[in-house]
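Researcher: Let's run the pair from yesterday's discussion. Sequence first, then tokens, for each.
Model: Starting with the first of the pair.
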Amino acid sequence: MAPAMSRRLPRDEALKALIQDQLRAFGLQAAAASQHPDPPHAAAVALALVDEGHGADLPGLPRHTAWSTQAALLLTRRASHLRRHAGQWALPGGRIDAGETPEQAALREMAEEVNLPLDASAILGRLDDFVTRSGFVITPVVVWAGAARQLTPNPAEVASIHRIPVAEFLRTDAPLLAREAHSEHMVLRMPVGSGWIAAPTAAILYQFREVCIEGRPTRVAHFEQPAFAWK
């Protein structure tokens, strides 16, 4: 059974101001040139703060019947027919098109994948770039996304949409670290309900927790991904 969640956080102006302040104070690190694949694929993902909504649809998460305005992060399960990372947990996002900023790409992809259109005023800031084993340099963009009550998955890319309470990422057993034979670095996972999310998504979620909520300038680029997430 999952540990009790700590500090349920309302998605209110106090939380928004806290996250903005933490991101302003954080010294961003771009991916080092030596880490880049050849050629690198630039991508952006949205860490979208939304209302928790109705109930939970994941094992081990508590259920409720009324609409909840507790803060949650928007995650998806990728469609099973995709060539890359089929069925895996993901944040809304994708490749940065020519002429786009990471912020523009994150907002565009969120509108395309989950039907959540927002403008630049929703952007709170960025977290560190993360270089994946599958050849992408991911820039995480933190977004204040509102109630988001009309979400719909794009079946070409998304199997399901999930609102995971921010409090779930503050669990005392997170992150889960393990040594695997394929790397000298620790593999990072984030527990969710009675399951877990793998890096790279888990590493980005962990840095969000540490920087945006806890105010700790934590780096995650060195964490490894499990072998199944490489392709």
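Model: Moving on to the second of the pair.
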Amino acid sequence: MLALYYYPGNASLLPHMMLREIGAEFELRLVDRGQNVQKSAEYLKLNPNGRIPVLVDGDLVLFETAAVALHLADKFPQAGLAPAVGTSERAEFYKWMIHLTNTPQAEYRAWFYPHEHVSDEATAPAVKQAANERLTRMFDVISEQLGDKPWLLGDRFSAADLFLFMLIRWGRGMPRPPRNLPNLNALAERVLARPAVQKVLEAEGIKAPVF
């Protein structure tokens, strides 16, 4: 059986939503960040970076959120969370998955943990402010690319929309949250309305307002 190591609201939210959309049998294993379990010797055997999530699939132990997501999309093609391999639509899907993990997801590290990016703690607020400015521009670009389409791939829902939903949620504490962009808010509302996503939020104890 599949096992997902998670913490509520963390990057594990994406594979958790995918697993619920797929309808696969899986086990949720809490990694209690409040107790720094992600830095424990046992967990570091699974992910030497000490970050969440990890997916265990038989003998496969996989970390990195986007890698887990792509593996699930490939393992369960019948779920339709990604277009067929070799198509132009699949290429667009790759584009969005890589962009979201390399650009806004990576930038959130500086927003949430500015102290990790400085040697002088006094400069951490400036790092956080700069990260906010970069994230704001990134979401502006995503909004422009989305336009009036219902989903990132046009009329087709995919795991990329779940990914974007998670990133919109993470920005709820920003001076200008991503939800303030009407089309991003509309996409997030559409994702939020999905029964599988509602099950994830209930299982993780995530209460409204979600984003």
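Researcher: Give me one sentence on the second I can quote.
Model: The longest helix spans residues 124-146.
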